[in-house]
Amino acid sequence: MQALSPPPSSSSLIVGTSRRRRPPTGPLVVHCIHRSYDSVNFPAGVVSSRSDWQSSCAILSSKVVGQEQPPESRSGGDNGPADSIASVNGHKTIDLDLVPIDKAAADGTAAVGGGGSNNGNRPLPMQKPLTITDLAPAPMHGSQLRVAYQGVPGAYSEAAAGKAYPKCEAIPCDQFEVAFQAVELWIADRAVLPVENSLGGSIHRNYDLLLRHRLHIVGEVQLPVHHCLMALPGVRKEYITRVISHPQALAQCEHTLTKLGLQAAREAVDDTAGAAEYIAANNLRDTAAIASARAAELYGMQILADGIQDDCGNVTRFVMLAREPIIPRTDRPFKTSIVFAHDKGTSVLFKVLSAFAFRNINLTKIESRPHRNRPIRLVDDANVGTAKHFEYLFYVDFEASMAEVRAQNALAEVQEFASFLRVLGSYPMDMTPWSPSGGD
Ligand SMILES: O=C(O)C(=O)C[C@]1(C(=O)O)C=C[C@@H](O)C=C1
């Protein structure tokens, strides 16, 4: 288990594989050997004209973004680095059952017209022609979808992956960035990643990664999060000197931990289930973990306290990411997520947000993050000196589909005040009812 640590300054990204300590179900974990922290280059604007923008909105393709990536940082897929990878982590990048040419020629299965000759005595070719379905390694829905999540089995993200895609094959990744890469390199078809929690707030890392990578938000899922305090069997609360978990989980249980009277230091680790796994693997009798009941079961831990989240309505919102956007529709409630940087000027942020208010479009979330490519703007106030303003990127979620004219018009207006704008996705809202997860 790794404690959270600052990223290395730069390097190329390689996706490697390893077995984690004592994985209970034996899955391989996709992990990052080196990470790329090269900044993204944003030119001004996303399309050249307003009419371009409107037609682009209509088909919802964030591919229209004028922000070119350097070739070396382009994701896999058509011509990315994935092309050279046939199989990674036991997952075929493309599951085509192709017969090698030599073998086909030897057993007479070479296709007619494909270079082989049928001399009349041999059986006719058994190979089926390729269809569009064969060429789509990522089925749109249903079973066998490979879904990357951050953490190990028993993590809430694994549960979210199962809620989003009930029959999926969940692929554990040791970092958020690796989950993005797994989709880009066709190791996974989707990633399911947490973006915000009702108590702990936003998971900033994933906001930054959404911008750095070229994946599209294709859905959202909300998961009630019910935390347990757990330790090795026989360990009593009084022995605990340390509580380890994901920083979000620690934040979500802060008051309850204090009320329980634990004299224990809090320590952040990569994920909740990984905390339980670590205690079990190292036989730590002075350490407790905050994780799910499923993690307790998987790693042989005993639950000391159940439902220790500070609020029984504790919910984490996850987004589903894919290589391709979905076509937005109007027959059910949709949400759209955008990110923009606003231009210089007076009240520009107010004007941008008014574009939604005037059209009765409800905003459900706004998050600002440092504009890492241009973090500071110098404002020269004559005779007064030079002020330094911080520059921000604003992430906004609003309740409308990009198939709606009012949403297209709102974004056309935003575009007029924005130095950068990208649609991260337009996707069905998670309307499933959920019940509070208990607790105090
Ligand atoms: O550590 C886990 O189990 C996770 O899935 C991550 C995560 C998060 O990042 O917020 C997911 C849900 C909970 O809010 C706590 C942790």
Task: List the SSEs and their pairings.
Blueprint: E1 14-18, E2 29-34, H1 50-58, E3 87-88, E4 91-92, H2 101-107, E5 146-150, H3 156-164, E6 169-173, H4 176-184, E7 190-197, E8 201-202, H5 204-212, E9 216-224, E10 228-231, E11 242-245, H6 247-252, H7 254-259, E12 265-268, H8 272-282, E13 287-291, H9 293-298, E14 302-306, E15 315-322, E16 334-342, H10 348-357, E17 363-370, E18 376-381, E19 385-390, E20 392-398, H11 405-417, E21 418-428
Parallel strand pairs: 5-6, 5-7, 11-12, 11-13
Antiparallel strand pairs: 1-2, 3-4, 7-8, 7-15, 9-15, 10-13, 10-14, 16-20, 16-21, 17-20, 18-19
Helix pairs in contact: 1-11, 10-11
Bound molecules: prephenic acid.
Name its key features:
alpha+beta; D-Maltodextrin-Binding Protein, domain 2; five-stranded mixed beta sheet; 11 helices; binds prephenic acid; lyase
